[in-house]
Fold DUF2795 domain-containing protein.
Amino acid sequence: MRLPETRDLFARTLQFPASRNTVLETVGSTELSPPDGKATTIRTVIERSDVEEFDSADDLYDTLMTLVGARFIGRRYYDDRGGMPQQADDDSEVSF
């Protein structure tokens, strides 16, 4: 499952507020597919947290997003506006 699809999964399958144990039992075995192809489970991600209760599907989703790691963000340092990222000591002129 792709990460953005999890919010809908949480809303459909869980009653909120939901305890950590309920989340792990209900959706913990769901696999998450990052862009690099190495799947992980919701259980693996949520177990990194010390949160014991989730107030809403959005709360659970936000926690998941915080914990998944850099593998899920796609190409790191990608800028679809073109050009290379500027260095802090780069004094070149920028036009907006």
Notes: Helices lie at 6-13, 20-27, 42-46, 57-67.
